[in-house]
Every structure is written in structure tokens, then in C-alpha cells.
């Protein structure tokens, strides 16, 4: 978890698209992609998905296009990789970065609930940290089943905000503080729901993985912590005195190099039966 990790339900939701927020979103995505936990889970999922030369790949919610470019490289010149991204600012950045890298990845406008591709036309689908922003994530998974050919594979990666951990401090106070991570997300338990959603949509689950995204143990992510603290006070989950006590405990732990702050991201790889 990085200090620019956007709060759940932030500008990454389609209905909250704001051209002025694009630089902040790009910075957030770039720092997330540098997180060792994200990199490890992505590498695992990419290996399990095993995109092959000549295949047609679809990246849903492609953001700045880093995964779309990786998929394009994996499927080669005889394959294709298309990133679907509703935010025009992020899509422009993705197109620019692909062009600069000489990468053939393509990008198009579109929504996870209504993918702009025909039935059974895709070999592999990648969808990372999209379902947490959707009020109807099951519909998005059904769309993935629609566009995948029989035998096609999908990799879903998403955060489970209920796994947020802050330590040390009074456990009840820290639980109230981290509960703010659940209040703004349309689908805060996205990570734990992936297996059930894929199974319900007719997929066969092939493998599962997870990775804790760790914040540095020597510094407090004050923008995020203060956001959570103010939310907890507004909701009546904490008093101002309890909030301030939590802040002091975290600050002291960071000075001692003893802070733990993390959230867990899960990944599932599955296939559509023949």
C-alpha cells in the first residue's frame, strides 16, 4: 500500500471521472506498480495465465497500459492486446507510453459491464483492481465469460479492503480506524469474492494467489491515515481523543521502525470450459 493509493471509491470509478484528477491517478498507478507485492502477484498471475504467441488478449480497466503492453509482448506480432479504459486521460497516457516503447498494444473506450468486443472473441482476459469499484461486479464477470472463447483463460486480481492492518495501538481503536477503508468502496470485499464469482459464472478455477501490500515500517502514510481518522470521527466510530491516540501510537512506532501497515490483494486464474 503506497501513500498515493487512492481511497476506495475514488476517481477510479467511472462515474467519478474528472480530467483534472488524471495526474494524481497516473502517479498513484505508477507507485502501485512499483510496489514489490504488486509486482510479485502480477508476475505469478501472468505466469499462471500463460498468454501465448498468436492469442487475443483483453485488459479490462487498463489504466496507464502497463499490463496491456506486457500482454502484447507475450502474444507477439501474430496476436493482439486490447486495453479497455473508460478514463480518456488515462487512455491517452497508455497510448503515448505504448507508442514510445514501440509496443503494439491498442486501447479503446469501454466499460467492464459492457465490453466493446464480440462474443467468444478473446483468448485471455486480465482484470486488475476493477471489481472493487463496481456496485455490480457479477455483471462484469459475466461479460468476461461472454467474450472469452471456450477454453479461454482469465486472471482476476483485486484488493480486499477488510484485510487492512494497522499496528501497533489499541486493537479496537485500530479496527475502527481501518474500517474507514470499507466505507467508500462499492465492493470492499472484492478480493475474497473472486473465486465464488468466477465459479458462479461457469468458470473452472485453476489457481489462486495472494500478496500482502506492505507500507514502509519507518514512516506513517499521513494523507491516508488522516483520511481514515477523520472518517472514523465523522461516523462516530472514534472520538477525537481516540483518533489522536492512534496517531501518536503510529508515529511512535514509525520512529522505532516498528510500524506495520498492509492490505492484501488476491488473484485467481480460471478458464471457461470447452
From TrEMBL:
Matches recorded under CDD domains:
AdoMet_MTases (cd02440)
Q: What processes does the entry annotate via GO biological process terms?
A: methylation
Give GO MF terms, alphabetically: methyltransferase activity
Return the InterPro entries for the record.
Answer: Methyltransf_11, Methyltransf_Superfamily, SAM-dependent_MTases_sf
Q: Which residues form the Methyltransferase type domain?
A: 58-155
The record's Gene3D superfamilies line, in alphabetical order, gives:
Vaccinia Virus protein VP39
Q: Which domain of life is it from?
A: Bacteria
Enumerate the UniProt keywords alphabetically: Methyltransferase, Transferase
The protein depicted here goes by the name: Methyltransferase domain-containing protein
The beginning of the lineage is: Bacteria, Bacillati, Actinomycetota, Actinomycetes, Kitasatosporales
Amino acid at each position: 500500500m503506497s501513500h498515493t493509493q487512492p481511497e476506495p471509491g475514488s476517481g477510479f470509478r467511472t462515474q467519478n471521472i474528472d480530467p483534472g484528477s488524471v495526474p494524481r491517478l497516473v502517479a498513484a498507478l505508477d507507485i502501485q506498480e512499483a510496489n514489490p507485492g504488486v509486482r510479485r502477484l502480477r508476475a505469478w498471475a501472468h505466469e499462471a495465465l500463460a498468454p501465448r504467441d498468436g492469442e487475443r488478449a483483453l485488459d479490462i480497466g487498463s489504466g496507464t497500459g502497463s499490463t496491456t503492453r506486457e500482454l502484447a509482448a507475450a502474444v507477439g506480432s501474430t496476436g493482439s492486446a486490447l486495453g479497455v479504459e473508460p478514463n480518456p486521460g488515462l487512455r491517452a497516457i497508455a497510448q503515448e507510453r505504448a507508442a514510445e516503447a514501440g509496443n503494439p498494444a491498442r486501447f479503446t473506450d469501454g466499460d467492464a459491464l459492457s465490453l466493446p468486443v464480440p462474443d467468444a472473441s478473446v483468448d485471455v482476459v486480465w482484470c486488475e483492481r476493477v471489481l472493487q469499484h463496481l456496485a455490480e461486479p457479477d455483471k462484469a464477470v459475466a461479460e468476461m465469460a461472454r467474450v472469452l472463447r471456450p477454453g479461454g483463460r482469465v486472471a482476476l486480481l483485486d484488493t480486499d479492503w477488510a484485510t487492512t492492518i494497522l499496528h501497533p495501538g489499541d486493537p479496537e481503536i485500530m479496527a475502527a480506524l481501518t474500517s474507514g477503508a470499507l466505507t467508500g468502496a462499492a465492493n470492499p470485499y472484492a478480493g475474497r469474492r473472486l473465486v465464488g464469482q468466477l465459479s458462479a459464472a461457469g468458470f473452472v478455477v485453476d489457481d489462486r494467489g495472494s500478496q500482502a501490500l506492505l507500507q514502509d515500517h519507518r514512516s506513517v502514510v499521513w494523507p491516508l491515515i488522516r483520511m481514515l481518522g477523520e472518517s472514523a470521527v465523522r461516523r462516530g466510530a472514534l472520538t477525537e481523543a481516540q483518533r489522536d491516540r492512534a496517531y501518536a501510537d503510529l508515529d511512535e512506532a514509525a520512529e522505532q521502525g516498528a510500524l506495520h501497515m498492509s492490505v492484501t490483494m488476491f488473484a485467481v486464474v480460471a478458464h471457461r470450459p470447452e
